[in-house]
Amino acid sequence: MSAERLVVVGGDAAGMSAAAQARRLRGASDLAITVLEQGPEVSYSACGIPYWVGDVVGDRDRLIARTPREFAAQDVDVRTATRAEEVDLDAGTVRTSTGETFGYDRLVIATGGRPMRPPVPGLDAQGVHGVHRLADGADIRAAVAAGARRAVVLGGGYIGLEMADVLHARGLAVTIVLADPLPMTQLDADMGERICKAIGDLGIDVQPDQPVREVEADADGVVRAVRTDAGSYECDLVVLGLGMGPEVALARAAGLRIGETGAVEVDRTQRSRSHPEVYAAGDCSQTYHRLTGEAVHVALGTHATKQGRVAGSVIGGRAARFAGVLGTALTKVGGLEIGRTGLCASQAAAAGHDVRTETIEGTTRAGYYPGAEPMTVKLVSDRGSGQLLGGQIVGGPGAGKRIDVLATAIWAGLTAEEFAGSDLSYAPPFSPVHDPVAVAARVASRVEQG
Question: Which pTM value belongs to this model?
Answer without folding.
Answer: 0.94
